[in-house]
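Box 3.1 — From sequence to structure: Galactocerebrosidase
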Amino acid sequence: AALLWGTILLACSCGPGPPRVGAAPLLAATYVLDDANGLGREFVGIGAVSGGGATSRLLVNYQEPYRSQILDYLFKPNFGASLHILKVEIGGDAQSTDGTEPSHMHYENDENYFRGYEWWLMKEAKKRNPKIKLIGLPWAFPGWIGRGENWPYDYPDITAYYIISWILGAKQYHDLDIDYIGIWNERAFSSKYIKLLRYTLDKHGLEQVRIIASDRLWEPISFVMMIDSELHGVVDVIGAHYPGTKTVQNAILTGKKLWSSEDYSTFNDDVGAGCWARILNQNYVNGNMTSTIAWNLVASYYEELPFGRCGLMTAQEPWSGHYKVESPIWITAHTTQFTQPGWSYLQVDGHLEGGGSFVALTDGLGNLTIIIETMSHNHSKCIRPPLPNFSVTPQRATFYLRGSFYMVETLQVWHSRLDFESGNSSLFQQLYPIKVWKGRFSLDLDVDEVYTLTTLKTGQKRVCPEPPPPQPFPSNYKDDFNIRNPPFSEAPNFADQTGVFEYFVNASDPGDHVFTLRQVVVQRPITWVSDADQTISVIGNFKWVNMTVTCDIYIEKPRDGGVFIAGRVDNGGIYVRRTKGVFFWVFADGTYRVTSDLAGKEILMKGLAGVRDNAWHTLTLNIQGNSASGLLNGYPLWENVTVSKPGNGWAALGTRSFEFAQFDNFHVE
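Predicted structure (token representation):
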């Protein structure tokens, strides 16, 4: 059907043709594509971010073949999104949007290059596309780097050493070459630190690693580079976030590569696809940006955390195996499957007379790819910045191919149409090739469409077998953490929101608690947002109302140490400080508390429990309707506490402060 439709569409649009009966004549305009007078900027590629933070958390828990299918849709060339760039968070033990990612150096004398999942993800991406470019960027830093201050630049040599260690560890332990390194996501930059970072990179034989700055706004980095020639010499790329397809004059005057180094961040329905289609073209047409990187790669975190489903695709149910290839994946393919880093943009204005835009790229060897988008205003709003009004109308575009393209006779055609009336969008369909007659062809363009016209015949829309249907999180879930050689450092489905909870081998325990889950961050990190003063990891189904949570706990910090288990936990991510729920705390001084908040200020009940540090105890929290009760070591400790809000939420566990503590035999029902 798509091929037939394509035949009709293109047959009708290869020349002016008769006017449509009863319809106003289409707006018509001509556009010339010519390489005779040289080319535009070099195309660097389209990418996506994993991290900032914990956005790929649930992906690693998927069983095969589903996990590999998801990775294929993201990274495999000529399959799905076929991404050119993968940008990852350099974990800093702190909250960075939807969770914390572990650092490779929790403490000054500690190095471990197997924590978290970004190493694994980079290797999986490279396995599918050996040419993919890798970027590392910190959102936060372990507390020891700031020597007690919430600032990474007081001791720039320490910060540079920390970042270099990550780059060297990627190579030594995973054979990964990092191509670009950033400074500090969306926070201040230090010229002194950037220069020192370049010097340290070179000293360690990492001359090939390029520096991006400053992953925030175009200014002040562009202005400072204009007046500081040494800084200008060490920064290779100016990366701006959510630039609204616009750049500034200073950035252009630097002569540097300009990137939208984080963009999109929009719910991944068809409006999200429209946003993505528009900015992929217009970041270059309006802003000279030669790379656009989406936050985020794949929505693999609990949907009720901030910015739920703001990934190119959705994979948030490892327990069921269900995932969804969302429309932004196929919008990406319109560019990525028919271009490569190193191609060049043609020098054209790129604005369509009837609204919308086009870009044209060439490999310099005779190949040509044209990408056209006609996204309407209301169907292409990104989450930020606000989008000024504009209009798009149906139109006829006639292209004249000049220079080395004059001899092109045929163009392959790929088409997407976002249908907001019926909801029946057509995504990345191959239509019949278009004939080019004496360097000329015409195309009738409707609103909310994407076309790729290309000399390349390599494009493919690959489709895996349908994944399993969606299922809620298991209503009866247990984890005893008894795993000798875990494939990842974190237990499945636990989503750390402050602190880091890792598998731990408790060599000193002779009995039932050799393999445990341990909270390991013992100093407040250099934060990116307002982490809680307590540590917390959430798990389960946000819709849960009635539940029983049981866990063995082990307080390691004498005197003022403490731990909790919780239910109906209503918040996380960047809002973790305001988290409410039902929290059952026990402390090393022998007391207990029941609170309705993570901060521990809203006390519902308190008393003596007799718990002590460095001993195992079992806590049970039971919430039914408006009543909660708690057991210690199987015996009732408190009961009939009235709980009103919140009405539902996750289960959780955590600690009173940044302190060591252990958990075992977790069970929620």
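Summary of the box: The longest strand covers residues 426-435.
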